[in-house]
TrEMBL record:
Entry keyword set: Cell wall, Cell wall biogenesis/degradation, Glycosidase, Hydrolase, Secreted
InterPro entries, A to Z: Glyco_hydro_28, PbH1, Pectin_lyas_fold, Pectin_lyase_fold/virulence
Official protein name in the record: Polygalacturonase
Active site: 251
GO biological process: carbohydrate metabolic process; cell wall organization
Subcellular location: Secreted, Cell wall
Pfam families for the chain: Glyco_hydro_28
Entry GO MF terms: polygalacturonase activity
Chief place where the protein resides: secreted
Amino acid sequence: MDEAASCFSRASVVPIMILFILHQSFIAESTTLVLNILSFGAKPNGVTDSTHAFMDAWSAACASSDSSTIRVPNGMYLLPTAMGFKGDNCKSPGITFWIDGTLVASSDYQILGQADNWLSFETVTGVSIIGGALDAKGSSLWACKLAGSTDCPSGATSLSFTNSKNIRIDGLMSLNSQMYHIVINGCQDVHIQGVKIIAAGNSPNTDGIHVQLSRNVAIFDTSIKTGDDCVSIGPGTKDLWIEHISCGPSHGISIGSLGKDLEEEGVQNVTVKDAIFKGGQNGLRIKSWARPSHGFVQSVQFLDVVMHNVQNPIIIDQNYCPHNVNCPGQVSGVKVSDVLFRNIQGTSATAIAVNLDCSAANPCRGIKLENVSLTCKKQVAQSYCSNAIGKTSGLVHPTSCL
Ligand SMILES: *[C@@H]1O[C@H](CO)[C@@H](O)[C@H](O)[C@H]1NC(C)=O
Ligand SMILES: *[C@@H]1O[C@H](CO)[C@@H](O)[C@H](O)[C@H]1NC(C)=O
């Protein structure tokens, strides 16, 4: 500290420091590069292909060593083909898509149908998607699949993040994906909030949010109505937090299918809190193949959940083996342990409200039912247990078979 500085009293140092901080944040804000997609040639008319404008804006944002915001104003932007946003050569510390408009795919499903993803982000860090809507126009592909035709393409996931870090998706709406709506794969530190997902209740393979091989993913304040899982949780998911979510119709929040492969990473530390399920196939599900596997599910908490007329409100199914093929021995190697169901209330659409069907080779351990109250309108609600070990506390209805 020099002579002059040492003469400052404490009282005068503090305001100077505040001024300094204000000055710094003003500079930081003023150097955020704002890139308007219209100035890259995008047309908000829903019919002009705006792919090049989006790719050019991404390149410009990447090339800058400042943070960037890519502005997508109101309107419809046609993005008919698969687009990859890659981060390997990005200099930017953070890129935000600030979207007021809607990104639309082609209504001809053949154009995107063979692609894995419509919009995919790979090896990016610090990317945020704020607002906006994605309309993948998947309904004609669903119709092809529902008609039982064998030559339908599998379809593209609408939005995926792969091998990425520090991701935020806030206030996005995703409509009518061909396949999954949002996939988080191989990522770390992902915050999803205020997302709305909508597809028909009978649309095939349209999972809302799929997470796998990822750590520290949080999903808050989200509403999902779709034809497959609301949230599906794949191998290698750790420290997943889901809070204040509405599902349904859907196939529920599903850990699995797991254990298809012998060598597979486990699922660990998953919390679902404050969830509501409306109709549909499942509420809270853990599902594994009846196949040899080193996979596992450990430390899962389901807290404060309401069920409205759900076919399987609570279900562990370790005997998944469609058409009874490729399941040598017909038992699952996946070890399920420490799963808590606390404060689960509401109605089941079938008599078996609690179904714990675990592996004969690896019984479920540490299953805990606490304050569970599920009724069925037409019949007496029941529990089913097979190879499940655990305990109950508080009021549990239907009477537990643990
Ligand atoms: C479990 O995950 C949450 C985030 O979802 C994290 O805050 C917590 O520390 C994790 N617990 C353990 C024991 O790792
Ligand atoms: C279980 O329910 C009872 C009665 O509604 C309540 O007093 C208690 O706090 C609940 N326990 C938990 C762990 O939520």
